[in-house]
Write a structure and sequence with these properties.
This protein is mostly helical. It has seven helices and two strands. It has a single domain, classed as Sufe protein. Chain: A.
């Protein structure tokens, strides 16, 4: 659980609060699938090994762009539940600064109640997607820093 000194970013907090209002597992999955429908299609040209999330049973691809200290993610998955997880993370993290993303911990998934609804492989996939997104941001920051030197 995030510490009181580090509240969740507003978009992510809204998502978590909405999940907390849903008491039935089936409804949680429906809400998760709603995120899958909202994920903009990732260009096929971007579905390459460098953008593939390792350690996921499903095929998951994520890209990250940093513009004016704001991060924008795109992504996709070949499985709808996993695509919903991608969508949840994209909606929750897009627009944050790189530092905000790097300081965030994935513990908020427990607050949604999804951690008990997901199969172990999907739960593991969620953590892999989240870490991959953080690594992509760190790589973009490192590339930007080296181009400035």
């Amino acid at each position: 659980m995030p510490s009181a000194s580090r509240p969740l970013p507003p978009n992510l907090d809204r998502i978590v609060q909405r999940f907390q209002q849903i008491t039935e597992s089936k409804r949680r999955y429906e809400y998760l699938l709603w995120f899958a429908k909202r994920v903009p299609e990732l260009l096929e040209a971007e579905q390459i090994a460098a953008n593939q999330v390792p350690g996921c049973v499903s095929q998951v691809y994520i890209t990250a762009e940093v513009h004016h200290d704001s991060v924008t993610f795109c992504g996709t998955s070949d499985a709808q539940i996993t695509k919903g997880l991608v969508g949840l993370l994209i909606e929750g993290l897009n627009g944050l600064t790189p530092n905000e993303i790097l300081q965030l911990t994935p513990d908020f998934i427990q607050q949604t109640g999804l951690d008990v609804s997901l199969t172990p492989s999907r739960s593991n996939g969620f953590y892999n997607i989240f870490r991959f997104m953080q690594q992509a941001v760190a790589a973009r920051m490192a590339a930007t820093a080296s181009s400035l030197n």
